[in-house]
Amino acid sequence: MAKVTVSGRSYEVEVRGDSVIVDGHEYPVTVREDAGMAHVNAGGVNYRVQLPADGERASGMTVNVDYRPFVFEYDGRFGAGPAPRAARASTGATAAAPAAAVKGAVTAQIAGRVLSVRVKPGDTVARGDVLLILEAMKMENEIKASSDGTVKDVLVAEGSRVSEGAPLVVVE
Questions:
Q1: Buried b (16+ CB within 10 A) or exposed e, 37-51
Q2: pLDDT tens digits for 91-115?
Q3: Domains of the chain with bracketed CATH
Q4: 94 membership: H or E segment, kind and range
Q5: How far apart are CA 83 and CA 22, in angstroms?
Q6: pTM for this prediction
Q7: What is the pLDDT of residues 120-130, one digit of tens each?
Q8: Do the beta carbons of residue 129 and residue 144 sit within 8 Å?
Q9: Cα–Cα distance between 35 and 28 in angstroms, integer?
């Protein structure tokens, strides 16, 4: 068991194989690495996590989750060995912290579930084009591009649950 503090908020965390227990709640976790970014699914919610280089990892490091910085500190161990990548990534991902502005990000105006994603990186969009459909309070909400541009990144997948203010799509 480890005590983890993410951007000033503390949690009790334990890693058990492919699950992480945070304050008594168990979350199944999968991690996929791609081009220096870890794609983490924690409890059915997808996150993009960028960790510091191996030599820069220590308590007090900054971890970027969906392009938002979180200061990550820990006391104790995450199981039998050193803290595994999946544990550190999912712990930062489950924290609620103020969102830092992501340049070009289209954000969720309400918490909900992504029903469909209509764009992919590289797509050209015009202001008002539908980027994705977000279900919230039993209603389907069209999330539209706020400006003309090119989709740089899609930060969510169909079925993902997102919180209010979470970045969904980055348009440059």
A1: ebebbbbebbbbbeb
A2: 333 333 334 456 778 888 888 888 9
A3: 2-94 (no CATH), 105-171 (2.40.50.100)
A4: helix 85-94
A5: 14
A6: 0.46
A7: 999 999 999 99
A8: yes
A9: 23
